[in-house]
Amino acid sequence: MAGKNPKEALFLCALQNAVKHGGVPQTGAVVGMVMSAHPEFRPRAKEVAVLAKEVIADVAALTPEERVVKLQSLAPDMYEALFAKHEHRRVLPDLEGAEHGVVMRFAPNPSGPLHIGHARAAVLNDAYVKQYGGRYILRIEDTDPKRVDPEAYDMVKEDIAWLRLGITETVTQSERLPLYYDLCRKLIERGGAYVCICNNERFRELKQAKIACPCRDQPVEKNLGLWERMLDHTFNEGEATVRIKTDLNNPDPAMRDFPAFRILDSPPHPRVIAHVYPLMNFSVVADDHLLGVTHVIRGKDHIANTRRQRYIYDHFGWKVPVYRHYGRMGIEGVVLSTSQMRFGINEGKYSGWDDIRLGTLRALARRGISPDAVKNAVLAIGIGDTDISFSWDNLYAENKKIVDPVANRYFFVPDPFTANIDGALHRTAHAMLHPGDTARGSRILVFEGSVELPRGDITHDTAMVRLKDLFNVTISWDGSIPSFAYAGDSLAEARAAKAHIIQWLPAQGAVPCTLLTQEGEITGVCEPLVTKELGNVVQFERVGFARIDAVGNDGVTAYFTHK
Length: 563
Ligand code: GLU
Prior knowledge:
Blueprint: H1 6-21, H2 27-37, H3 45-60, H4 64-74, H5 76-84, E1 102-106, H6 116-132, E2 134-140, H7 152-163, E3 169-172, H8 177-189, E4 193-196, H9 200-208, H10 220-231, E5 241-244, E6 259-263, E7 276-278, H11 280-290, E8 295-299, H12 303-316, E9 322-326, E10 329-330, H13 338-347, H14 361-367, H15 371-381, E11 388-389, H16 392-403, E12 409-410, E13 412-414, E14 416-422, E15 427-432, E16 442-447, E17 450-454, E18 464-467, E19 472-478, E20 481-486, H17 491-496, E21 500-502, E22 505-506, E23 511-517, E24 520-526, E25 537-540, E26 544-552, E27 555-562
The structure holds glutamic acid.
The site of glutamic acid has 7 residues, from loops.
């Protein structure tokens, strides 16, 4: 590792750490790296710790791009090392031109939290960066103030942290407006763009007729002057637009001289004061180029944008990244539209962005779906361009692989009723916390004569049931009133009688439990030990997996995960 003196070594380590993980490096991590590479500094630990704080502040003051440039020039080996450490997990088809590492990005709009649709782009790009090594940029695309929710900045970052993506740096487009303005001027100078002051309706008519608008052929100087007037507020909203010169004969009217910058004063942007904003195609190209993006994996719904974006690359003479467009993915059974979600939350129809009827990642997390299950399910779908529908069953199967070995088993009795069992006295049942892991031990359920049983399992045609881990019970009916009697301990007899083996709870001490499912609430009772599982996924035997969401004086609230 490079670095002749402690300060230099610390600076390079902090820089490398910041390029790799984004954000501000932790002092401990930086000091640890330096000390293991330079044992000779160990006697100077105190001094090194003080210096570490200084250099971290220096690194924190650099922009992500400056960090990359500095690391490349000061310690090329440390920059290279970031690319060398790839996992070689070939789960996806090869990407052309990726042999020496990739730079990829995930570019959500901060209009709400991330949902499963976003997870596909986020996870596929992440997997490729892991496969080939390289940088993975989170780019917050917030240059359309109409589509910015100030709270979404943090939500998106939280969702990404939950997915444990290997993001190496984060950029926010609203902080980069001067860069886009500068490039716009350059593009005008190159004759690739012009300022159009036609009214929108007029422009549209001309465009449909494949006719150039009067602004298209005005000289560069005139365009530069008009551009300045856009920036200095001489023009108001709707009065001027920068357009990219494309091909007016393009069969698709949407390709013809599409807009690149517009004026917008309302709504105001929550983060910057601006009058002129780049449109998505321009800011995406500018940043893909400036950040050195090599490969772009995105949905087929962006194919037209890719075509538009190529015009901008061609005007600048820039190298075009490698694109892959995956097919559309229908997702049924949950609400995904941000506006519909927001409306429902404001109306009180949904409890929040993590309401389990929504398709957000936070709703999945609340239900006990693991981020790795989301990743595996999305990777299994892959980057094929055929349209598919998202398979919940597959997501649940992936999640089950993860939660089944760890989830403790408990009894939850839905819609319970209390039954006295004749012929049995005090008994103690030992029920295993996990059938595959005896070391975890068992729950002890003490029978004292009466139990809570699931009403749905006690029907007129049920002659016998076995209370799991306890004994068999026969049922006899007097009209609509059942009575219950002890019928021996033999599991073999229960099997021979084809008795259902059902969950039960001692009537004394059963804890009220509400199980929330996407279809509605199930009320019941559960074992007292469930109160110790807050935040965990458990398996309610015969019911399914559930995440314990809240434990209070009035009992337990759990969210149904899947069967
Ligand atoms: N911000 C764009 C979106 O979320 C993505 C842009 C891109 O992938 O190029 O649709």
